[in-house]
Amino acid sequence: MTRRCLLVPLIFLMLASGSAQLRSGNLKVRVVFPDGHPCNLRVMVRLMLSAGSTAVAESYTDENGFTNFDGVEVGNYHLIVSGEGIRETDSGLFEVDNRKGTQFQTVTVHPADEANQNGGSEGTTVAVADMNIPGSAHKLFDKASASIAGKNWKKALDELNQAIRIYPRYVEAYNNLGVVYARMGDRASEREALEKAIRLNDHFAPAWVNLGRLAIIGRDFPTAETMLDKATALDPANSETLLILANVELMNLHYDQAIANCRKVHSIGQDPHALVHFIAARALERESRLPDAEAELRRFLKEEPDGARAEAARKELANLQKLAR
Asked: What CATH code is carried by the domain that includes residue 106?
């Protein structure tokens, strides 16, 4: 079965998130094809507990490959995606924890008839290569996914390296290897694994995102912007990547681009990223568009009225109102 590829948690440079403890959260799911394009078929997504074969909830994707599960209790889950025109796919284990209200999972699915597709396009080439992954390597990748869900980083590292030894062109394994190295604090090995993933497939958006995140940690914002630009070109409807890109553009003083990408996130309308309004407000303020900046801060407070970020937004709104007098 095809497993998900991981993203290192992406940081925001301006604000710290609140620390409210939650017993449940909202899960946003995106279903994509191997080339990163959204699955535009209406497919079923079943939310499954880590143990057991009964679905906790079921939902169908929209034309952009998105679906939502609200009020999911804290625990370990996996997703099963099925439908006409695709191979049934299991996401692998992941955790809904008590540290954030909304979480995101991306599941990569393959067309049911892709073995017969010989059109020679980039997406088809990637899909056929993925089909060549030996079953033994798949099993090790799956075991690594479970180890990652359990935060057993050393075990996951060993399992991913075994999978790569069996199949040296395993792009997803190299990407997840980079994530594990990030969790272990080994930045040099993280970069090496992610760059290997890109060399094997430069159309693999998650690795570009993770390289962008690595540049952010190093405060190399121009490089981060370049990496994230590549990721959004490959996956233009990924609102989370656009949000990070907008924040980096703000740090690089590219205010118009930051505002434009905040608007894109809002127009996608799938993931309620309240922070886009705060980023847009900062960029608008730098351009001396104070009424527009105030409006963005008010939208932010409407969507996120509580927590440390809301307190910071209220202080900034008060300062803007003083300037406008």
From this structure: 2.60.40.10
- Domain annotation covers residue 19: yes
Q: State the sign of the Cα–Cα–Cα–Cα dihedral 131, 136, 139, 141.
A: negative
User: What is the rounded average pLDDT of the residues 199-204?
Assistant: 92
E strand or H helix at 302: helix 290-303
This prediction has a pTM of: 0.67
- Number of H helices and E strands in the chain, helices first, is 12, 8
% of the chain exceeding 70 in pLDDT: 82
In contact, 15 and 307? CB cutoff 8 Å: no
**What confidence tens digit (pLDDT) does each residue in 130-154 have?**
557 888 998 998 888 888 888 899 9
The domain in which residue 38 lies consists of 1-119
Total domain count, the chain: 1
Q: Residue 95: inside a domain, yes or no?
A: yes
Strand 24-32's sheet: what is its strand order?
A: 66-73, 24-32, 102-108
CA dist., res. 175 & res. 116, Å (int): 27
Output the pLDDT for position 57. 87
